[in-house]
């Protein structure tokens, strides 16, 4: 960040949470450096910019676009305004598990200050605690690792994962209790989504069929716009305990102090809540076609694709490592048929 263009670019989806790293002791420059690879930017709600100077810290404000005096991001209804950042190309390698932080005391300002978003360090620390307490629960990958579209392990059933969507917004995604090829998105705010988010979710589900269904169950909505990370952690814990987030109502005023106490004790306990028994309803559904070996969606206008010249199936060009002549590409299924 000394005035030179960076040699690589990184998706804004993965950089955004890290820009709040100043609240946990990391500088913005270091945070940007931690992110790598994927030549994509949001279609719906981000823009691509070039890093030619030191970026400014993101101020605390609501996810709904209610801002203080300083520059920051707005939701899909507005435009994203932010300091200078560079945006990337694709990162190979496998996803990383969420890791415990050794700086829990540094989370106090972020956790105990109202109207302050949680960053990826807090989210990953909570997921790491969940993995220790519920080792059979799949998912719980480091959030930035997913944002980089890293190679995912084989498809799993019974996963819980917190995802970064856009504009400082976190949601919980799980296929627990779902039919095969269906995944629930527990969103405490507004059921927003981006192409990057859909690509990450379908990659984690890794469904071998032609399409997957995303559904947004009706759950408790948060008051204000800055507590989505708290609800994402609370819903992840509820799911890991075998309970349904649709049937609980959290005491939002106590969530911050409760989570900080859990971090200090090194154990996540149920958030203060009341249990209600309601018929589960789905507020929104979306069917998504999936392609390629990775079984992800294809981002319109962003992902170079290659079609098998025999069956016509589509593949991400960045997934076909070592293929020299993409125009003559024959997929593995058709290659087996040819040999027979």
From TrEMBL:
GO MF term list: zinc ion binding
Q: Where are the transmembrane segments?
A: none
* Region feature (Disordered): 57-81
* Database matches in PROSITE patterns: ZF_PHD_1
Q: Which UniProt keywords apply?
A: Metal-binding, Zinc, Zinc-finger
Concerning InterPro entries, the annotation shows:
Papain-like_cys_pep_sf, Zinc_finger_PHD-type_CS, Znf_FYVE_PHD, Znf_RING/FYVE/PHD
Q: Where is the composition biased (Low complexity)?
A: 59-76
> What is the protein named?
Ubiquitin-like protease family profile domain-containing protein
Give the organism, scientific name: Coilia grayii (Gray's grenadier anchovy)
